[in-house]
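pinning this so it doesn't scroll away 📌
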Amino acid sequence: MFMLRNTLSSKGSAFVNHFKNAAKYSTETVSALKTTSTPAPQEQDKLFSHLEVELKGVDPAVLKSYSWFATKAANHLGIEVGECYAPRKAKHDRMTLLKSVHIYKKHRVQYEIRTYFRYMNFHKMTGSTLDTYLEYIERNLPEGVALKATSTELQALPEHLKDIPSVE
């Protein structure tokens, strides 16, 4: 370690001179760029009228807890929270299999998977708020829960529809 320090200190003056010259060049370049640059036009943020979030999982208690978390996060960001609901019945997927591979057709085993759903609706938000909110709730998604988000964007009326031709 001592030898390494000596090696760096013996070549240190060359490095210092090199970086001083580079720093002087970079400040001159930046000052020249500042005077010649033109302001970039600001891009307008998109507007969304509706966001529907569908949660799907096998444990209804986890879905209820996560929907509470998602609505609290939306309230914190100032997003208007709409209806949050869950259908009464779960979707049942049943599979019937034979216990034995070769014989005893009467002996069967039945497996069942219940899938629960929960829906949340949010209204009136900007594109940046929507992106921030979706990224936040996706990062905190619990295990065993699937999320599907559907958004509706507001757009300006096209030019060919604005002018109504007069009928004479």
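📌 and the second one:
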Amino acid sequence: MAVDPRHQGRKAAAALYELVLELGEKINLPVYFESSPSVVNLYKKVGFQLLSDTVVHKAEVLGTEKDIQVPLMVRMPSKAGISFEEWRSSGYPKFGTREVSYVGGQAEKAKQQIVTKVVGLREAKSAEISP
């Protein structure tokens, strides 16, 4: 997820990640993303963990002077009861039997909400670009 620089500072990213966090809670799965180094502390404040792993974007691909190291962050669902590192080291087991109860209509409804928001954002962007 990225926000066009012209629209940054308007809480667009917050609206999107709140929707994704809600979906993660409903289907009992972690939410993972590659963060900008400048906003790591912001995401820590809302419950994300900074992982020891990073991704390196190569300078030649980005057209920059230096490679850029990107922090990885994750937020576990509240029902997990363990950290991401504990979950990963144990082979990514399911978080109990309640997981299946979220797969039905709630997950589908949340998925539809995301699709609707994305389509709405696309339509707004198209209207902004159209002459």
